[in-house]
Amino acid sequence: MSLLNEFNSTSPVSNTSGTVAIPLLLTFRVIASLNGPRTVTIDNSSNKVQLEATIGWAANAAETTVEFAILRDNPNTGTVIFTTRQSGEAGSDANQNTTFEHIDLPKTTGDVLYYLEARVVTGSATVIGPVTFSGAEILPNP
């Protein structure tokens, strides 16, 4: 059984649907990050980091596809460690809630920065909340 060693998260003060309005572009933009005081600090290079994200977004056009990515170390130019896509349509299928989890093995010690980014692939979309991004350092099995 693995042990949780450290936990950090980021979310708006009021984390409900409609609390943010972040228009998505054709290029990736940061929508949440684990950096600064929310950095994940790795004590041992064999430790893993469990990353979880929940993003509420709205499709503003028919046949809208949004791509989400987690990058390590730097926004926009860092190492892409995870991507996923979800689709929706304006109207009855407009509001979407995307949740995912990824296990990272950064193979380093010290502060590791993570960035949650999103972009629209087709159509038009806006992140509307909630937005939660968390990281937990996991010690190896004893």
Descriptive keywords:
142 residues, mainly beta, Jelly Rolls, 4-stranded antiparallel beta sheet, 0% helix
Mean pLDDT: 92
Unreliable parts: none
Indicate the CATH topology: Jelly Rolls
Give the strand content.
Answer: over 45%
Number of helices: 0
User: What is the total domain count?
Assistant: 1
For the biggest sheet, the summary is: 5 strands, antiparallel
Looking at the overall shape, the CATH architecture is Sandwich
User: How many strand units?
Assistant: 11
Highest CATH level, the class? Mainly Beta
Helical proportion?
A: under 10%
End-to-end C-alpha gap: 7 Å
The sequence of SSEs as H and E is EEEEEEEEEEE
**Sheet/helix structural class:** mainly beta
Radius of gyration: 16 Å
SSE map:
Elements: E1 3-10, E2 22-23, E3 29-34, E4 40-42, E5 48-59, E6 64-72, E7 79-88, E8 95-104, E9 110-112, E10 114-122, E11 125-139
Antiparallel strand pairs: 1-11, 2-11, 3-10, 4-9, 5-8, 5-11, 6-7, 6-10
Structure description:
The chain is an all-beta fold and 142 residues long. The protein starts with a strand and ends with a strand. The chain has strands spanning 3-10, 22-23, 29-34, 40-42, 48-59, 64-72, 79-88, 95-104, 110-112, 114-122, 125-139. The mean pLDDT is 92. Helix content is 0%, strand content 61%. A hairpin with a 6-residue loop joins strand 6 (64-72) and strand 7. The strands form 3 sheets. Strands 1, 2, 5, 8 and 11 form a 5-stranded antiparallel sheet that branches. The chain has a single domain (3-139), classed as Jelly Rolls, CATH 2.60.120.760.
